[in-house]
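Posting this for the archive.
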Amino acid sequence: MDKQYILEEIRRTTIENDGKPLGHRKFENETGIKYHDWLGKYWARWGDALKEAGFTPNKLTSAFTEDFILEKLCGLIRELGYFPSAADRRLKRNKDKTFPADGVFERIGNQRTLKLKVVSYCKQRGIEDVIKLFQIPESGEEKKKINTTIEIVGTVYLIKSGKFYKIGRTNSLGRREYEISLQLPEKEKLIHSIKTDDPVGIEKYWHDRFDKFRANGEWFSLTLEEVNAFKRRKFM
């Protein structure tokens, strides 16, 4: 059992449990990951696993105030020089455990809502440098245009052809399936699709996560464990 997979399952189940980490018995029931898969192999106790995943046992991650979350987001904007995608936030979280988990941001809202809240937060405090790093139109008509753009939802999909799996992205899943079917010698099968407002970032997230299983380009030789991990996500 891969250590990184266990950590990602801890983060996923914690988010789904309103920010409260599960006990190891409930975690086993939810994921099928048994205590002997990690005990004495990666960690001496369950609390150590939770800490490495970025959580304090029995402490709600939702206890972060909105001001604290927006302050952290402003810091990341300064660091990157642009408004971070969900994938950027996850990467920051992996490097800095004091940065809120992605589920904390999701409870505030989507990318559009986060942008507007950051603008409001910065204007109230006179933080002009952060706002200048990403454009927020002033007129109602321009706001309407950018809101429409931000809310376009794409899809990151997993299809199987023969023994290999392809991870790709599209704004029109049915059309993309048809286009791929014309290129393949064997009939492809759609395994699962994830809706997202950041198709580029989420596609990269799964490509990086499954990199060691890469066969060629966007094609991977995945085990059932990796396929099930992808299938658990409905939106990212």
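The beta strands are 154-161, 164-170, 189-196, 214-216, 219-220. The chain has a mean pLDDT of 79.
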